[in-house]
Amino acid sequence: DTAVSQTPKYLVTQMGNDKSIKCEQNLGHDTMYWYKQDSKKFLKIMFSYNNKELIINETVPNRFSPKSPDKAHLNLHINSLELGDSAVYFCASSRVAGPKTNEKLFFGSGTQLSVL
Amino acid sequence: AQTVTQSQPEMSVQEAETVTLSCTYDTSESDYYLFWYKQPPSRQMILVIRQEAYKQQNATENRFSVNFQKAAKSFSLKISDSQLGDAAMYFCAYRLLHYGQNFVFGPGTRLSVLP
Lengths: 116, 115
What we know:
The structure holds two protein chains of two kinds. Chain A is an all-beta fold. Chain A has no helices and eleven strands. By secondary structure, chain B is an all-beta fold. Chain B has strands at about 5, 10-15, 20, 25, 30-40, 45-50, 60, 65-70, 75-80, 90-95, 105, 110-115. In chain B, a hairpin with a 6-residue loop joins strand 10 (about 90-95) and strand 11 (about 105). At the A-B interface, strand 5 and strand 9 of A face strand 5, strand 6, strand 10 and strand 11 of B.
């Protein structure tokens, strides 16, 4: 069973469209994340949720809206897509940070978004 | 701002040889975890090795080992007996222990393994 699964793997769309990426984890983790990997491979945090509560919201255009219906799911909706949104988007999950919680970050397989 | 620096954008190593990838980070905290992740062309992010900052002993995982120098804020990765399958992007990362802290990644080092 895939620990963190995100769909779709590839997304090709026209500028101005609205699209969603879905993510689910079956690890029982409380914390989920969205990372963006640009063309230079740099990984940047976008959002983090803990048990459905938004705890990290980096400087991201408000066209990006995360939604966490429950702690196992964290979806990403993007409105009015722009050329610069083209990137790979990774969903990930982990346990809550804390002393001695030597927990790694579990990644989904990524969604390659191409905006034409 | 908390940052992670990987000063080698690209490295290459001959198969069966040893290579060391460097990583430095900047934090004023004393408790954190450090990680090396590998991203092969398949795009999947794979944990290679992790280290607790409170442990002085360097972590090892088979052919992978780290040199953790806390005072210098340095966390290098050594790959011994390099194999063709080690070719990938390697990312150094750390995570503070406070609630709400995310994993902060460096810009990556692209490793090529030459046959």
